[in-house]
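Why run this: before we spend reagent on co-expression, it is cheaper to look at a predicted model of the complex and decide which construct boundaries make sense. The entries below are exactly what would go into the expression plan.
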Amino acid sequence: MSRSKVKKDIIFLVGAVLSALTIWGICILFHQNDADIVLVIQDGSQIGAYPLEEDKIVIVTWGEDEYNLLMISDGTAFVSDADCPDKLCVKQRAISRNGESIICLPHKLVIRIVAKEESRLDAVTY
Amino acid sequence: MQSPTDRKNKTAYLGLLTAFSLILSYIETLIPFQIGIPGIKIGLANFAVVLCLYLFGYKEAVLLTCVKALVSGFLFGNLSVIIYSLVGALLSVFIMILMKRSGGFHIPVVSAGGGIMHNMGQLLVAAFTVKTYSVLYYAPVLIIAGLITGLLIGMATSLVLPYVKKVILKGVPLE
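The model came back. Tokens follow.
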């Protein structure tokens, strides 16, 4: 066990761990720029898109005076209030992940989370 | 200089090492090692490659790696497995050769370098086939995993190496 070898060993191992941490950090920064988006689709057409990171309250109107109150806070989106008859959209849990959605049938409303760049693959074989 | 018997012996030992690496690959397919992250393997077959690198040399190690990746791919995998493991294994053996040549590292660390590069090679193939950079999120996990498994395999190799060396290079029979 020569001293210089041990020193180089340690330098290599520390370097590897540091580079892993660096890439991890870069990925986190990169991920924030690539934020997920809350899509609001009514009657088949998109009427709004909001970043999931920003807290926001959106009133989605339907017909004359009916509404759904969409709230985006702490990286989740949910319908906090609505005047549709069954209120299923309010009862559905908050969504935060890519592909999740909240649907209000009476108001023909779909709220869905999409990634900026969607993965085109289901699985990869290693 | 190598005598003809030496050369014959070397061929036989290389065959043994190849068989050893294939058996290790097979054992690895038997071990249910799922921790939720695809692409992480123990890399048992690296054992044979590191042994070969330290017993014989660079050319032999590269040869063993190619044969191992191709044959184990045909036996236990499919074409995509062959591509993944060939790229990973070649990158891994090249970095190990460089690290051994520099003479500054112990066997476990050389093996750890190989483990890391094996994973990075597979990640490169994945990034190339998927054509997104999002697979890079795996890089830190794979680096750490390759480091740990490589270190362990390298430690095992460095413990075994003196005994195997005695048998193969000096012709002392095993008791």
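Chain A touches chain B at residues 1, 4-6, 8-9, 12-13, 16-17, 19-21, 23-24, 27, 31, 117, 119-121, 124-126 (CB under 8 Å). Helices of chain A lie at 3-33, 88-91. Bring this page to Monday's planning discussion.
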